[in-house]
Amino acid sequence: MVNRQPWLQQEQCPKHLRANRSAFTRWFGRTVFRLMGWRVEGSITNAQRVLITAAPHTSNWDAVLGIAAILGLNVRLHFLGKHTIFIPGLSWIMRWLGGIPVNRENPEGVIDQVNQIVEKYDGVVIVIAPEGTRKKTEKWKTGFLRIAEANNCKIQMGA
After folding, report:
1. How many other CB atoms sit within 10 Å of the CB of residue 51?
2. Is 49 helix (H, G, I), strand (E, B) or coil?
3. What DSSP element (H or E) covers 34?
4. Do 49 and 150 contact (CB within 8 A), yes or no?
5. Structural contact between residues 39 and 102, judged by C-beta atoms closer than 8 angstroms
6. In this structure, what is the dihedral angle of CA atoms 4, 25, 159, 144, given to the nearest 10 degrees?
7. Cα–Cα distance, 114 to 140 (Å, whole number)
8. What pLDDT digit, counting tens, does each position of 11-38 carry?
9. DSSP count for the chain of H helices, then E strands
10. Residue 89: pLDDT above 60?
11. How far, in Å, CA of 41 to CA of 121, rounded?
């Protein structure tokens, strides 16, 4: 008999990086993940500050899977997202989930925003799609390296 890893569980997230979400939201995230046929392998690095590069970012479905993972893992994280997804009516939930709007035409303030969030929490996870787009790219943008260095973050790859 094969011993399969569970779809997704909050034990894959260190205690100091967990959010205080309800049992229903954790169940909802795990259920969406399971229904879509995905699972999380491994766990989030046990460090005070973690920057996860989520790549490749090739589909709008990445957002659905990301939200399900946030809820199912019960992780307190912040992610960078294109400012146009923070529309009225949807903006509040994106921010509740940890979203940070990024205007790609004026990205200078992003590092300062992330620095403020890191200073606010004892333990924090930042998630960035290093391509900066859903299109196929030959190389990643380097902003995630500057953010990680400025905030003494461990970098973890996610795919």
Report:
1. 24
2. strand
3. helix 23-35
4. no
5. no
6. -150
7. 19
8. 888 998 898 899 999 999 999 988 988 8
9. 5, 5
10. yes
11. 26
> What are the respective helix, strand and coil percentages of the chain, to the nearest 5?
40, 20, 45
* Spatial CA neighbour of 16 closest among 41, 60, 47, 38: 47
Distance (Å, rounded) from C-alpha 66 to C-alpha 68? 5
Q: From the centroid of its chain, how far is CA 48? A: 15
CB-CB contact of 127 with 70 (8 Å): no
Nearest one of 20, 48, 12 to 120, comparing CA atoms: 48
21's tokens: 């979400």
CA angle 113, 115, 116 (to 5 degrees): 65
Query: Tokens at residue 36, please?
Result: 């879509």
Q: What percent of the chain lies above the pLDDT cut of 70?
A: 86
Average pLDDT of every residue of the chain: 81
The DSSP code sequence of 73-120 is HTB-EEEEEEGGG--TTTHHHHHHTTEEEE-TTSGGGHHHHHHHHHHH
